[in-house]
Amino acid sequence: MMDWTDRHCRAFHRLMSREVTLYTEMVTAQAIVHGDPARLLAHDAGEGPVVLQLGGSDPEMLARAARIGVAHGYDAIDLNCGCPSDRVQSGAFGAVLMRDPALVAACVAALREAVAVPVSVKCRLGVDEQPVEETLPRFLETLRAAGLRAVTIHARKAWLEGLSPRENREIPPLDPALARAMVAAFPDLAITLNGGITTLEGVRAALAQGFAGVMVGRAAYNDPAAILLAADAEIYGQPAPFAGPAEVAHAMRARIARHIEAGGRMHAITRHMLGLFHGRPGARTWRRLLSEGASGGLAAYDAALDAVGATPEGAGAHGAGQGA
Ligand SMILES: Cc1cc2nc3c(=O)[nH]c(=O)nc-3n(C[C@H](O)[C@H](O)[C@H](O)COP(=O)(O)O)c2cc1C
Asked: What is the pLDDT of residue 304?
């Protein structure tokens, strides 16, 4: 998710779940090929499995970007066909590609030839006035013929004009039943459901319906303890890496200290952690102390840890329930 799932966010999320697949923000193929790939693609060694999501529609450029991405250690490549952005200089990318399955198929074929890692597509049901019951299966059929084996469907349309990107995540109605129909129609495609799933119960329900996976976006970011920290035990049958959010907060301290020592701003990491205590005692105090201490250095982080009882010395001493 653009501006959200950067490397610091992903490191934080990986700490909470060893099992889930993480995705980068969308990075345009052009930026990777002509820009500064070392900066754009830098990530932690232990962050995988992590999928590099590319934006673009020039098969040659996408192939080059994918090769560079794999050389930087990414585990899979995903092509964005869901972002409701306008055309950019490099051509069309994102949801507008739902209108051009042949071009997306050419992109998929080029990506598959360029890299040995899995290649997937993230799409919408369709765009604008498309009759999606007809156009979505045609889109998937064309991509499957190009060798696509995995697709994530954000189960709502995108409106390319008149709605902001944010409105395009909220206003077009969700239609998971159509995505489910695609599971039945394309048994050889691994179809992941996305859109509006906010609980692990919802994840389990979608898996029980035959989806190969479930992608959780905003809920995982806004309430990571409920989704990510619980996922290993509840979805994968593995032990949770930490007992609770306080332990996660404490474990993040070393990374924050290293980042500050290297000249970075604490906020670059802690801005992704504001929701860690969402709905729990201390949530509001945690959020406030992290926000106020954004440039305050490690002492500010320690004060926030202390407030939620996350440091051994401070455990419970300051009343974790304050300000919840
Ligand atoms: C801030 C933000 C940035 C996003 N950036 C991307 C992106 O780069 N690529 C993408 O495929 N989807 C992006 N999305 C859409 C989400 O991946 C997801 O499809 C959408 O939020 C619906 O899922 P959810 O209801 O679980 O959040 C973004 C969403 C948000 C809120």
From this structure: 96
Residue 236 maps to a domain: no
| Residues forming a β-bridge with 190 | 150
Residues 157, 280, single domain; the answer is: no
Residue 290 within a domain: yes
d(CA 109, CA 81): 15
- Cα gap 119→105, rounded to integer Å: 12
Question: What are the pocket residues of ligand 1 if the criterion is a CB atom closer than 6 Å to any ligand atom?
Answer: 1-4, 25-26, 53, 80, 82-83, 122, 154, 169, 194-197, 216-219
Paired strand residues for 151: 121, 191
Please tell me the residue having the least CA distance from ligand 1 atom 2. Answer: 1
Beta bridge partners of 213: 192
Beta strands across the sheet bearing 150-154:
22-28, 50-55, 76-81, 119-124, 150-154, 190-194, 213-215
3 state DSSP class of 11 = helix
What average pLDDT values come out for the chain (324 residues) when binned by 10 residues?
97 98 97 96 91 97 98 97 70 90 98 98 97 98 98 96 90 97 98 98 98 98 98 98 97 96 95 97 96 89 93 44 34
Ligand 1: centre distance to CA 165 (Å): 9
Cβ density class 242-256: b for 16+ within 10 Å, e for less: beebbbbbbebeeeb
Report phi then psi at 50, rounded to 5.
-135, 135
Give the Å distances, CA to CA, from 213 to 13, 115, 194, 197, 289: 18, 23, 9, 12, 36
Q: Is 107 a catalytic residue?
A: no
- Measured CA to CA, the distance from residue 148 to residue 270 in angstroms comes to 37
- Which domain does 22 fall in, by range? 7-223
Q: How far apart are CA 107 and CA 15, in angstroms?
A: 33
Number of folded domains that form the chain: 2
Report how far apart, in Å, the C-alpha atoms of 17 and of each of 8, 186, 230 are.
15, 30, 8
